[in-house]
Automatic annotation (TrEMBL), chains A, B:
An example Gene Ontology molecular-function term: RNA endonuclease activity producing 5'-phosphomonoesters, hydrolytic mechanism
Official protein name in the record: Mitochondrial cardiolipin hydrolase
Keywords: Hydrolase, Lipid degradation, Lipid metabolism, Meiosis
GO biological process: lipid catabolic process; meiotic cell cycle; piRNA processing
Family affiliation: Belongs to the phospholipase D family. MitoPLD/Zucchini subfamily.
Phylogenetic placement of the source organism: Eukaryota, Metazoa, Chordata, Craniata, Vertebrata
Keyword match Hydrolase: yes
Organism (species): Scleropages formosus (Asian bonytongue)
Cellular component per GO, a single term: mitochondrion
Domain of life: Eukaryota
Amino acid sequence: QLTLAVLYPPPCRSCPCSLPHGLETSFTRLMRHLLSATSSLDLCVFAFSNQKHRAAATAEWGVAVSILTNKNYVFISGFQIGALRRAGAVLLFSSLPAYVHHKFCVVDSQLVIASSLNWTITAFQSNRENVLVTEEPDLVRCFIQEFEQLWEAYDPSRYLSMCISCHDCPRIFRGQNKGTRWHSR
Amino acid sequence: QLTLAVLYPPPCRSCPCSLPHGLETSFTRLMRHLLSATSSLDLCVFAFSNQKHRAAATAEWGVAVSILTNKNYVFISGFQIGALRRAGAVLLFSSLPAYVHHKFCVVDSQLVIASSLNWTITAFQSNRENVLVTEEPDLVRCFIQEFEQLWEAYDPSRYLSMCISCHDCPRIFRGQNKGTRWHSR
């Protein structure tokens, strides 16, 4: 219910979250970069469970939000697949043994936010973390390439064809039973 | 036993580790940056358990190595406090509830390696990660400040005085019993 109220003017005085409101903080600066998106927001995050800033809300004002995260973390508290999907976000979940351990975001294909930070409430409120923001074209290009490569690698049609051929991979189908649907980007 | 053989010429043909040898990889590029240190190497890492590249070995050739990591991860397999200390590294361990979740390194106070990467063998061999290397002075200054601030914050003399006054904090003393000693930097 909170989504981006932290930054969105006017400040939501009744917001029950424990983050600072009306203050300039690292969190609000990060949110400002996310909210600067006008066309696309590509998130690639190891864990994503912070309902207070779920970037997918930007989808509501016409930004294409794509989220790639680890399947193991999909059902942790706060992830809210349904809310993200209803807001228009497209999600892909890595389901290979190797973790997608990135914590980056590409805004409008021209700004990168890369960090040590998982997008969880603990990380924002408790940990010591660092966040780098850059528009340096060569760096941005690297992150876009990585995102696109992973997006292709975790395209569910690859898994589905694997499952059809090997008949021993119930993971994807379990995901479908729980309401996880796959979308082309 | 392996330390930096991966990069150090000539390549150690008998090295039993599973990392590529004699190849240009992300790992060897990272190692090259670490080995470029001539005066200091300041590591601030959430987890550090990769004996294959333990940077403290650089201390053997006159580089001052300072490592700040989380106390909870000190005794995981591969950390090797003793080996690091014998190589001359100075270690500090955060023991507050909040995690130091950084994964960065400052080389000679003029180059920063910041990443999504914990310094574990799993991270290097299995995960999808990103590593940023920069000499941009403003960025380097930020990381140096953060390192120095944390180094001061986790100065054990602060904990010890806390313990003396409150008499209910056995954590530090347990650490001492296990051979964890504190050094000024």
